[in-house]
Amino acid sequence: MLDMWxxxxxxxxxxxxxxxxxxxxxxxxxxxWTVETFLLAVVGIPLALLVLHFxxxxxxxxxxxxxxxxxxxxxxxxxDRGIRERYEYKVNLTSRKQLERxxxxxxxLDEYTRNPxxxxxxxxxxxxxxxxYRKYKADVEQLLGVKPGEAAKVRFFxxxxxxxxxxxxxxxxxxxxxxxxxxxxxxKGKTSSTRTADFxxxxxxxxxxxxxxxxxxxxxKAYQRSLMTDSLRYDIMKRDNFRCVLCGRTAKEGVxxxxxxxxxxxxxxxxxxxxxRTLCDQCNLGKSDKYDPKGVN
Length: 297
Hints:
Strand order of the largest sheet: 1-2-3
Number of strands: 5
Strand content: 5-15%
Number of helices: 12
Number of domains: 3
Radius of gyration: 41 Å
């Protein structure tokens, strides 16, 4: 190494500049120093330290215990990144009063009802991501002694392996925001007004629970019976010629006509025309809630 420096310096002006001959404005070498030792101290030592640093980094990334453990944690923590950070909706209204009274919660409930599978999948992914990141933070804190949120706080005396691990910490997937804009534009288009609302995952969870309650109620006996309106009752009797479909009697023969559920509500029957028929009071009371899936009803 010293021979190389000697050969290099023998053909350069450094020996003249850093010689014992004093040149105005140039600091002379201390006693006992040669040009080779001076340049080795100025260039060689920092270069050696830099090479040593890179060697340590390579060794850590190849065989560092904490770094390898962090990589395994990162691979195991597979976030669902298919969900968007923001879901946009827009509603056009026909009057300013309608805009002022617009119910955004009702809007999102209707949207959820129209496509419960899609909304349910987004919420499930968001909640799973949140759950995974909570576990990931706890595991990282146990491994490195630092929370992922402190990744930017790199202290000077931190061990090199911890510093490297901090740079490779996973970032959480932002929970989605559901944004709705309600807009009213005057008939001639001269003025317009808008209102906006943002719903987070927790609020959409509450809407999902309301949707499930609505579904359960619609499947309930009370709901099915509430669908039996006077208008529907008339339509069924008119379809059946105002006559009991079992015995053939009419109101003129002294019986009272009822509209009966062929498959009883108590057994899951729905209040729909194909499950309804006209019976006289005697046939209806005699039938009660009987139903034979293999026979005549």
